Amino acid sequence: MSNSQETLKHVAESLRRRIAAGDPVSQVLRSDELRALYAEIPTLPADERAAFGKQVNQLKTELEELGAEQTESDDRRPIDVTAPFDVNVSDQKRPRLLTSDKGSQHPIPAEIGDMIDIFYRMGFNVSESRQIDDDYHMFESLNFPDDHPARDHYDTFMSEEGFIAPAHTSTMQNRVLKEYKHVLADGEDIRVVIPDRVFRNEDLDATHEHTFYQLEGVVVGKDINTGNLVATLQTYMSQYFRQELNTKIQPFYFPFTEPSFEFAVERPDFLRKDDSEEQKWLELGGCGMIHPNVLSHADIDPNIYTGFAWGFGIERMVMMRYGIEDVRHFESAKLDFLRQF
Ligand code: FA5
Hints:
alpha+beta; BirA Bifunctional Protein, domain 2; 2 domains; two-stranded antiparallel sheet; 18% strand; elongated; binds adenosine-5'-[phenylalaninyl-phosphate]
């Protein structure tokens, strides 16, 4: 075998191996070895030239055919790593959206949005509570001394280490008083609402859940009195219910307010089971003038400043607004109920 035939044989074997190993044919066709074969043709004796040229062309055609097979059997697509992800994802793997009529926001966060909108318009800030708290914020800062019997009224869930799942949003009073007390020096009032989730070890019924939401409000300034408290709650109620409702406050006891009240609204007829006085009113929350000891715990001088606070049950307000007869629907995850919103 001549030298040129020998070289052709080696180059052909080497290029076939490269294609079999997955090298792109376009690269193999541009390889130096194949170019060298073409460059050799004009250097050969005239009687060998035509035959050798034909063999090199045959090799090129064979490599091209191998390349066509390679593209057919390789379903990988080139990836543009700089492109947004969906350019590189095949249609089957593209994330799909459910149609929006298959889901909706839960009524509680939607209603909380409406509630805080009203309070924004009344000049309030909004804070979040937390779902794990401690004895100081649950009791001590709220003027529940150790072993005070009123602690038993709040049947809390507590860990062995003493962490408490907050039983009301009043656990935030001390924190927001400290956070916002700097505005008092500028002659402004502290005005904050705190909507969040709370937990109680309850006997469950149509108006009692173990997990529910409250909306706390705190107002502190100079010359704040019970008249401001009632006016604030009534302004809010008429906005939220879009009508004037009969309301009443009656004396109650909370360690952190003095005087303390319970706040109730008159139920529309369709939400009453009978004509009893108990069925006439729906208790929405507790309220009162902030106890001087609570202000002192936040380093606010109770001889200069006074204030009021309240805590509403959010589900109870939503039940009133939409005529929902049982609080347990909210946590039930029943689609029949949720799809109405
Ligand atoms: C309190 O939780 C006080 N922290 C309210 C307060 C705040 C008073 C600031 C003074 C100053 P009470 O335990 O009454 O109070 O609960 C307040 C409201 O939460 C109730 O009126 C009711 O609307 C709602 N609520 C209470 N327990 C439940 C329950 N188990 N399920 C649903 N809603 C409830």
